[in-house]
Amino acid sequence: MKLDFSKLAGGGTLEAVPDQGAKTGQPPEIERRLEHKRDELDRAAEICAEYQKNIKAAEALQVDIIKGVKRGESPAKLFLEAVHIISLMTGNEAVYSQILADFKAIYGRGLRGPAPLAMELEEVEARAKKLEAAEAEEEDPDSRARIRNALAAHKAEARRLREALEA
Hints:
167 residues, mainly alpha, two-stranded antiparallel ribbon
């Protein structure tokens, strides 16, 4: 609402004048509805873009599964890729994260399955390489010491996983 001060100079009273929409020149109620519709369309476009991204990722994972079967990769790895596809297509990536964590804990650490242990070993070694690179680049002695401690823990975990794989 705007206040009309033009009548005050002539002795009149102050009147409230309804605002015209700043963007469209429409009354405020119509302006609010238009803004709400714009927000809905923006949100729908975001959802559509996320869905398209997930479709592309799922298609790439499908190709990985086909190639993995032809290469004779472990069913465990193929299973996890299939679960990842499902989680992408449903938009619920928490399912994948939960199944992956359970898979590693139960089939890897619990049942000592070679495929989950090998997957975990690969992840630990990849993180260790990143830590080695970070340690070499770090200038701050305190940070370097923290990185060195994390690297030592990763190397110990990698040894433990290798021993479990050999057992």
